[in-house]
């Protein structure tokens, strides 16, 4: 049930995959950095839980930026 192999992908498919992965990684690193620097009093809920949530694809970091931080 594995997806297509790297060698079987076209150049445009490879570029799309690398771009998507880069955006996802950048979002996660940004969210984890913000979480690490933000005092616990300015986070909605547990910092440990948000650290785990951030690891979930695009949804985690976006959820953290939307609901995890107090203004």
Strand content: under 5%
Rg over CA atoms? 16 Å
In total, the number of strands is 0
Give the oligomeric state. Answer: single chain
Main sheet, how many strands, which sense, barrel?
Answer: none
SSE order, as H and E? HHH
The DSSP helix count reads 3
Q: Categorize the overall geometry.
A: elongated
Query: Which structural class is indicated by helix and strand composition?
Result: mainly alpha
Mean pLDDT rating: 96
Question: Which ranges are low-confidence, i.e. pLDDT below 50, for 5 or more consecutive residues?
Answer: none
Portion in helices = 55-70%
Distance between the termini: 44 Å
Describe this structure in words.
By secondary structure, the chain is mainly α. It is 63% helix and 0% strand. It has helices spanning 11-37, 47-54, 59-68. Helix 1 packs antiparallel against helix 2 (47-54), helix 1 (11-37) runs parallel beside helix 3 (59-68) and helix 2 (47-54) packs antiparallel against helix 3 (59-68). The radius of gyration is 16 Å and the shape is elongated. The mean pLDDT is 96.
